Structures are given as structure tokens and as C-alpha cells.
Amino acid sequence: MNKSELIEKMADAADISKSAAARALDTFTDEVAIALKNGDTVSLIGFGTFSVKERAARTGRNPQTGAAIEIKASKNPSFKAGKALKDAVQ
């Protein structure tokens, strides 16, 4: 399912226009991104939790030359599925 299909499903289920559903989805994704950027987590009980995981700096290898390279530390968005979502998938 892509974004436009999700918007269509949301509009049908909530009995709202597609433009209203698109604004709601865009607002949701924007607010999750802002919260993660500010170091917060977003928990939707039963669905899951969005958070930021930090990866430490490490040494890797260039696959072509075999030379050691330094990989910088980074922050990556993460999602952990909740119990209800896990049960729905099984």
C-alpha cells in the first residue's frame, strides 16, 4: 500500500474527504518527525513506538580495497511494533 492508497482508505473509513485525510496523514508524519528530532518518543498504545536509536562510531572496511574506514556515529529513526499490531499480523 502506498501513501495515496492509505489516504483513500482513511477517507473512506472516517467518512471525510481525501484532502482532509491527506492533511491528517501529513500532519501525523510531520509531528512524529519533529518529536523524534527533539529527542522524544511517540507511543501509540497497541500499535507501536517511534524512537531514535544512536549508533556508535565504528571501523568498517572498504569492500573494494579492504582498507579500514571510520564510520561516523549517527542517529536513526526506529519503530517497535506493539502487541496488538504483532497479533494482527500473525
From TrEMBL:
GO molecular function: DNA binding; identical protein binding; structural constituent of chromatin
Entry's Gene Ontology BP terms: chromosome condensation; DNA replication initiation; DNA-templated transcription
Coiled-coil spans in chain: none
Alphabetical UniProt keywords: DNA condensation, DNA-binding
Ranges that cross the membrane: none
Any GO CC annotation of this UniProt entry: HU-DNA complex
UniProt similarity note: Belongs to the bacterial histone-like protein family.
UniProt function note: Histone-like DNA-binding protein which is capable of wrapping DNA to stabilize it, and thus to prevent its denaturation under extreme environmental conditions.
Protein name (Swiss-Prot/TrEMBL): Histone family protein DNA-binding protein
Source organism of this protein record: Thiorhodococcus drewsii AZ1
